[in-house]
Specification:
Shape: globular
Distance between the termini: 52 Å
Number of helices: 20
Helix content: 25-40%
Structural class: alpha+beta
Number of strands: 20
């Protein structure tokens, strides 16, 4: 993938940093000052057309960029803080979110907060692990062993650390020593906190590839050739920890691993941008500090727990392509674009966005009607919505069905192509409306979610999109249509130059007449609610009691031990409805578990 395409499309070109720093005066001690001679750091910066000297020539711009969570410099800086030079044993571990809290905040798949170290342990090894100071009322830190990174559940023998103290960790099986710190507050009050953790002697060091520290030569001559005893070669891109089987790593020894790590980092940043995760201080809109767990062993899937993506599409660590973009995209899908089985449809919003970022083109099949794989990639159409209304073919979107994934994706791509800021605004609005799951009941049917989507797509595009959705065959309610009408937006083919300020004064006169007629109809509906409770007791005897080891699906209704009825939530939470272990029962038993609201809603 060409770096120039990325720079052109994002505008991330440090134009003020063109002067060489050779003639600069005395240098201050910036975060990069100690890395200037590090070849791995130089090679990582080169991926973004930067040098250490450019950073020093305009330090204020460089420092501002390294505080921007949508900028690669932010994540490179974080990586250098996490991992000491020369495979040392003094780490600074970022505080990430408790799994359930992260999913509730983002309404997307979870991430892993367990960071790899270059330390490999055998069963029986004893190692002292000391943690520095942190708020242990709200943060839990731990040490564990990572074993099978191709599995969703791959973290074993977790031992809690004690702040300002030593803990002796005894390994029960061989694997990679892992470190983690979790913020137990739901609004991530300890965002960007890093906890110093030191690992004492013991175990054996197996080098891992760290983007920003490790060099291409180290990859070719050492890291790719030195798997750990489990046959694993581990890598870290800044936001993903990656596992490659020994054979695939060795086969990729002379491939450009620096460029590949750049692509893995950019995939996460671009997906954050699509969802509206930015550098604002609103907790709902902060990018996760957790990690993608990418495995080159299995293929081709994504799982909601621990950020797992299986991307073993080749016998090598190939440059990223549609498969990798697609599986990464699954980790970013949120409820506002995934009603009624759209999992394999709307995921490609992210695939297309990443593809356009890295190549400047888009998949013709995913963005234009009646295209196939043979049509390859094409430029994006900024007038896609208008052109579809003029000459596109009507479609029955709601009929769905297997094999229609790309045909229906075209609708989402047309919106992506026509309205640059639409999806970021939708992401922010959805998180505000969902609000950590407090308002999940407002979206407990596909129709409610669909109505929300068409209303807010119109609102944030600045156009009345009813004609667009009608032609696509996307069914929305009369109430949703009325709400769009009340927005008084122009049609998609009308310019928004003068009409924009018109909606602002409209709410002023509306409150005055509204209260007057309200008292009259109020007494009339009073007798109507009386029969409503009657249907509720009737179905209860017909619903089965909740049982462990029973597979539940979205919409299933069960009776809990507390006598109330609960309904299994739609994807991405459906998997939590089925419990098979005591730990899962503790968390997800409907109405009784510690985190039951993650999987169930109270049925009324």
């Amino acid at each position: 993938m060409k770096k120039s395409v990325y720079l052109l499309l994002t505008g991330v070109v440090m134009t003020p940093l063109v002067a060489a720093a050779a003639d600069a005066g005395p240098q201050e001690n910036y975060w990069w000052s100690g890395e200037v001679q590090n070849t791995g750091f130089q090679q990582a910066l080169k991926q973004f057309d930067l040098t250490p000297q450019q950073l020093t020539s305009d330090p204020q711009t460089a420092l501002a960029r390294s505080r921007d969570r949508n900028d690669p410099l932010y994540w490179i800086k974080r990586t250098l803080e996490i991992y000491p030079a020369d495979n040392g044993r003094e780490f600074k571990i970022p505080v990430t979110e408790v799994h359930a809290n992260g999913r509730a905040r983002t309404h997307a798949h979870g991430r892993t907060g367990h960071f790899i170290t270059p330390i490999f342990v055998q069963a029986g090894d004893k190692i002292k692990v000391s943690a520095g100071n942190y708020n242990d009322n709200q943060i839990d830190c731990s040490v564990s062993t990572g074993v099978k990174f191709n599995d969703e559940n791959h973290i074993f023998d977790v031992i809690k650390l004690v702040k300002n103290s030593n803990v002796e960790y005894q390994a029960k099986q061989q694997g990679t020593l892992m470190l983690a710190c979790f913020d137990k507050t739901r609004d991530i009050q300890h965002y960007e906190t890093m906890v110093p953790i030191t690992v004492g002697s013991g175990g054996k060091t197996h080098p891992i590839f760290i983007f920003g520290r490790s060099s291409q030569q180290e990859w070719e001559t050492q890291i790719s050739q030195t798997p750990n005893p489990l046959g694993q070669v581990l890598l870290f891109s800044g936001r993903s920890r990656l596992y490659a089987p020994a054979a695939k790593a060795k086969a990729s020894a002379h491939d450009d691993i620096i460029s590949l790590m750049r692509e893995h980092l950019l995939m996460t940043i671009e997906s954050d941008k699509v969802n509206g995760f930015d550098s604002t201080q609103s907790a709902l809109n902060l990018p996760t500090q957790g990690l993608i767990n990418a495995s080159y062993e299995g293929c081709c899937s994504a799982a909601g727990g621990q950020g797992l993506v299986r991307i073993g599409f080749s016998n090598k660590l190939r440059p990223t392509a549609w498969g990798e973009w697609h599986e990464y995209g699954h980790q970013y899908q949120f409820g506002g674009v995934t009603w009624s089985g759209l999992t394999e449809v709307s995921v490609n919003i992210y695939s297309v966005a990443i593809q356009h970022l890295l190549t400047g083109k888009v998949n013709a099949k995913a963005c234009f009607q009646n295209k196939s794989d043979k049509d390859g990639v094409v430029p994006r159409d900024p007038d896609a919505v208008v052109n579809f209304l003029k000459s596109g073919e009507p479609y029955q979107f709601d009929q769905g069905g297997s094999g229609t994934e790309f045909a229906r994706m075209v609708m989402f791509c047309q919106l992506l192509s026509s309205y640059d800021n639409l999806y970021p605004q939708l992401g922010k609005a959805w998180r505000a409306a969902y609000h950590y799951g407090d308002n999940a009941a407002q979206f407990n049917t596909a129709q409610k979610t669909k109505d929300w989507f068409v209303i807010n797509a119109s609102r944030f595009s600045g156009h009345d999109l009813r004609s667009f959705f009608d032609k696509w065959g996307l069914g929305y309610s009369a109430a949703a249509a009325a709400e769009i009408v009340n927005l008084r937006l122009p049609a998609p083919d009308e310019l928004i130059s003068e009409p924009e300020p018109q909606p602002e004064p409209q709410p002023e006169p509306q409150p005055e007449p509204q209260p007057e007629p309200q008292p009259e109809p109020q007494p009339e509906p009073q007798p109507e609610p009386q029969p409503e409770p009657q249907p509720e007791p009737q179905p209860q005897p017909g619903y089965p009691a909740f049982s462990d080891n029973t597979v539940y699906h979205a919409g299933d209704i069960v009776k809990s031990r507390n006598g109330k009825l609960y309904q299994c939530k739609p994807w991405p939470y459906t998997g939590w409805c089925t419990v098979k272990t005591a730990a899962q029962m503790l968390h997800y038993e409907p109405g009784m578990g510690l985190n039951w609201k993650e999987a169930w809603t109270l049925y009324q």
